[in-house]
Structures are given as C-alpha cells and as structure tokens.
User: What shape does this take?
Amino acid sequence: MKHLLSIEDLSLKDSLELLSLANEMRKTNLKEVKRLPALSGRLLANLFFEDSTRTRISFEIAAKRLSADVVNFSAKGSSISKGESLKDTVLTLEAMGVEAFIVRHSSSGAARTIADASWSSASVINAGDGTHEHPTQALLDSLTIRNALKDFSSTEDLQGVRVLIVGDILHSRVARSNALLLRKLGATVAFCGPSTLLPDFARHTADEIYSDLDAALEIGFDVVMMLRIQQERMNSGFTPNQVEYSERFGLTQKRFERLGKRTLIMHPGPMNRGLEIASTVADSSQSLITEQVTNGVAIRMAVLYRLLAQEGTGK
Ligand code: CP
Assistant: This one.
C-alpha cells in the first residue's frame, strides 16, 4: 500500500494489522525515550489547506516519533494567496525532497488528485477531504472502541458492538469513514440526525437510521459518537436554530443520565460544548474523547510506518 485515501483502500486484514501496530506504537509512546528509528532521513510534509489542531499536530508528533523530518505547510501565509496551484505547490515541495504528503483540503478528492497524478511520485495520506473521508480518524476511533471494550470481548474485531453516530451526517467525512470501517470490523452502525442532514448515501452506509434521538437511545448502543455541527459547510437552512438543535439532537446531561453506565461517549473534535454535547458529558468518566486524541498519535505512527517503512515508495 503506497497511499491511504479511503477506508475502502483497506481490507479487513489491513485494518486489523493497523490496529495491532498502533497498540505497539502506544507502548513506545509510554517509554521514557518515545522514538523509533524507522523513518530516519525521510522527509514528510503536512499539506493543510483547511484548519486543524488534532490531525496536523498528531501527524507531526507521529512523524517525529518515527525519526522522520516533517515540514508543515498551511495555505494561510503561503504562495497559494498569490494564485499558486495545488500541482505547483506539490511540485515545489517534492523538488525540495518531500516524499510523502499528509493532505487536508476542503475539496473532496483532493488527496486522490495528488496520488493519481503523473506529476507526483509521493505517497499521499488523506487527512480529511471535504465531506468525503477522514480514514485515520476512523482508525483511531475503532482503536479507541476496541481497547475500551476489550474487557468485555475476546475478539480482535468489533463483532456485536453497536455504535450510534449523531448529528450532521451530510457534511461529515468522519461519519462516512467510521461507518465504512466499523461495519468492516463487524459492528452495527446507526446514524441519527435531522432529516435534512441525513443524505441518501446514509441509507447505504449505515445499518439503521433515526431522526429521533430519544427513540434511538432507548434502543440501546455501546457507543454514542456525537458529531460537530459544521457551520462552515452549511450553505442553506439545514438545521433549526442552535437552541432547538441542542434540545432535539444534543447529548444533554438529562439524556446522558438515561444511558447505561457502560455506554461510551465519543466525539472526534473540535467540540461545540453546550450545542451537540454538554460539557459535563464530554468531561464524564464514560467519555473517551481524550483517549481518542491519544490514540490519534499511535494510529498515525502505524499508518506512516506501514506506508513508508514497510512498503517502500514504488507507485
Ligand atoms: N478530528 C479532527 O479532524 O480534528 P481537527 O480538525 O482538529 O484535525
């Protein structure tokens, strides 16, 4: 495997191997010296055309823990403002020796454009493309669920686990990648949100669809994953006002108290505290939100290791 553009690039075996490798990387991250020599002398670029905290920084930490050199490109402050294209940006960085790009872009398919281009020989990892996919987020979420449930399950995969993903499904690359990976691993995935934010693809991507959160929660899930309302991608009246949205689709303290004590709470971040999730819920002992962030470093180490140390760079 040279690129990671979509969860569809991964077989079940690839997915399980990446989760196992990430748990090995977690062990490295607990050592006093948190560094492996695997990518010594290799040069990677974080190519971010959209804002990010978790993904960009965790890829940078992951690259450094594998001893790679990493440069951070962000569209703000670059020659993009002078009209430079994606192609010329990539060619410029490759001419300086960059051999792998970690790409976040507001356009769906941007990472694939670079991976498929005859003018680039670099490895490409999709770090979130428009409303399409965010494969490393899905991998870190599955790792988080698997590790949290390991006391209750002896299997490597997620057979029998029920996951409810709530919110802005229409604009969510996290929802799409998570549904693809969780179902590959054997979990049952349900989507819940306002009908205006439940597109046709949702009906093919999830096992169950709900537009009433209280009814969905009554049915029972092992994991409830709340999504951010993506104000930056809303260009028409998709949702009621914020107070009404929170009342109908927010994980309020009242709703949380009706869940079982074993129900795990997740959110990919960044959170709108008080809108899609109450602060008390996000900070509760059932919340895995900081664990998701910790696992982000381990998963990205595993992906970089697999693509660049195990597979070489042949296209
Ligand atoms: N979850 C996620 O992609 O967060 P960032 O936008 O901060 O990278």
About this structure: Residues 52-55, 128, 134, 137, 268-270 surround phosphoric acid mono(formamide)ester (CB under 6 Å). The chain has two domains: 7-134+293-309, 135-291.
